[in-house]
Amino acid sequence: MNKVRIGFIGAGGMAEHHIKTLQKLEQAELTAVHDANPDRAKQIGEQYRLQVYDSAEHLLHSGTIDAVFICTPPFARDGIEESAARKGIHLLSEKPVGLDLEAARSKSRMIKESGIIHSSGYCLRYLESVQKAKAYLTGKSVDMVLAYRIGSLPPTPWFRQMDKSGGQLVEQSTHQVDLIRYLVGEFREVHARYEQRNILKEYPDATIPDVGIISFSLQSGAVGSFSTACMSKKFGRGDVELIGSDFYVAIRGASLRIVDNNQELDEKLSAEYSLEQNRAFIEAVRTGRQELVLCGYDEAVATLEVTLAANESANTGRTITFEADPARK
Hints:
Layout: E1 4-9, H1 13-22, E2 28-34, H2 38-48, E3 51-52, H3 56-60, E4 67-70, H4 80-87, E5 90-93, H5 101-114, E6 118-120, H6 128-137, E7 144-150, H7 162-165, H8 168-171, H9 174-184, E8 187-195, H10 199-202, E9 211-218, E10 223-229, E11 240-244, E12 247-252, E13 255-260, E14 264-268, H11 273-287, H12 297-316, E15 320-321
Parallel strand pairs: 1-2, 1-4, 2-3, 4-5, 5-6, 7-10
Antiparallel strand pairs: 7-11, 8-9, 8-15, 9-10, 11-12, 12-13, 13-14
């Protein structure tokens, strides 16, 4: 395959971000778009010269695409991945890949059995800082993890509804949860406490919390905490810090800090993670090499499991325990 023909289901800001990035890749050919909002679909179609389809099914059955970027909100995913898999259409599914864990697991099994190339929206794995940190941590024992996702409330109305977004941990902070899994390993236990502190003053009908603290342990024995908040208009943070007995690693976007007995390193590295994510997906489709993708659909489902478990813990007050998966050790 020389060029990969790409369609988009969902034409919001994330889809447009992918479109702009894919335009930089010679092997990507943008062909088709569908959105539940016909006006938005028409706007994107005209702006980027894409054929507009009136349904996801029509787009998937059009014969104009080899791969599809699924950029709909998590509550609007019914049947899309399954249809793509049945048609042999490769897919990149934006995070989170749903709000129902069993449904996501079922989709993951079908995708794997279909043999299509699959990727997900966990783009931070492609950061140069993350890759360098992962290489540094090889063979080292992380004892403590500190993670943060603090910022303001997105303007999208559905984000404020728990049954549509899953809350900030599922919809946004999931990136940091995924980095913990990628760099340190699988979770063993989570215990969460959420509150609504400011959100109801602005949006009385909101059902998501706007602050949360999650404590956790990993299968390795490491322990950690995660602070998540979407009420902070004057301060933002999205770090992951990893601490061992003789080292400290901090990832702050493209910035990497490593301190140990031999170095005190501070680096600002490449931030083109979306470009690298899409480059890897396109090349995987072209060559049939799934291993080029750093976070497939199955990995996205594993991260979803952690965030939904934290929500369950916050609702019930119980600590949620995960069974160890020998295949992921």
